[in-house]
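Lab notebook, bench 4. Still working through the backlog of constructs that have no structural model yet. Next entry is a single chain of 420 residues. Request: give me the structure tokens for it.
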Amino acid sequence: MLSLLVPAVPSGAAVPTAAAVPAGTVVAGQHAPRTVVLDGKRLVHAKQRLNQGDPVRRRALADLVEQADNWLGQGPWSVADKTQTPPSGDKHDYLSQAPYWWPSQPKTPDNPLGCPYVSKDGQRNPEADQIPDHSERAYVFASAYTLSLAWYYTGKAAYARHASDILRTWFVTPETRMNPRLINAQFVPCGDDGRAAGLIEFSLGFTSLLDAAAILDTGAPGWTRADHGGFRSWSAQFLDWWTTSEFGKEESAAVNNHGTFADMQVAAIALSVGRPQLARETVLQARTTRIDQGIAPDGSQPEEIRRTRSYHYSAFNLLALARLADVGRHVGVNLWKHQGPDGQSVFKAVDFLLPAATGTAPWPHPESKFEIWKANDVIHAAADAGDRNARAALPQLTPPPGGDLWTLRPAAELLSSELF
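Model written out:
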């Protein structure tokens, strides 16, 4: 969820409460949403605490409502609206350009693109922003999630109706829907028409939409049975494509954050569309492939600290592990308790970030854009799972722009000042 696209509510602003539902709106269903990353029972508990006037959650709700109000005037978006035609020839296919690839030669009449393109890790090429699918996909993910949560806690019908319209337009309506595949994601000019690495653009945020739809399923105005069925069908087709395509297989085999996010994506979608055994098998396998092999005995993550943005990617990979652990909770697997043969664990990896995240020591590895609050959500997740060091660090964390929403949506989200 790109929760930092709007500012936090200014100090002194009126703080809405879940009890103060405007006339004419529909209160969200009282039963626990059947979410796959979030814990639906914790959402019910948070709503109860809001009704009791809990000040921490009231403050979080003010920030959430500010973000939701900002989204009311934006969207819906559609992949079919872009002017560019993907290499597939079908505008319903998602299209994005590899962000860290740059022309290596001057652009001339004989070589207008500056081919060949070369990789520059961590340096974003602004050419990638000329294709709208990348940014609009991020807007869909952030807006639908934020709006569904805002409806759940306030009962304001406009939030649910707009979230429904956004999801329906991108995933359900035949004229505007995206094809459930990623064959042209992160293409490289004068190179590949698409790459397996491009799948991470959906791995990150789509699982939040699974939870958004589950929240809307509790009785949201504007969200119909046809919408529910259409979104579920799209998700099932996407999962089938992921697990059978060469791109999907390659991404799932990656040894860095791409592979962790692939596992998280597969497990969450599988649980959402009624394939809990696949979800459980994916989480169980991650104990070896993502923890034993991906985390060093000292808690560092070798594949992430070698990057030019090592703090970002260390927190990023842990975000996927924390969300995978959330899925695991639904299928009876506790990733937090797992320890590798040399003591590797998710707890130890989170603790490795704590000195930098609390400002008590500098980050010891390369980082071209250090944002101290980047790891806040994974620290929250570790604290909730029983990490005493993480719990002790919570009062020392710097709140992210847009406010700390953990008490209302207790699952790790991407905290970033940029689109991903």
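Notes after review: Strands lie at 95-97, 101-103, 117-119, 184-187. The radius of gyration is 21 Å. Flag for follow-up if needed.
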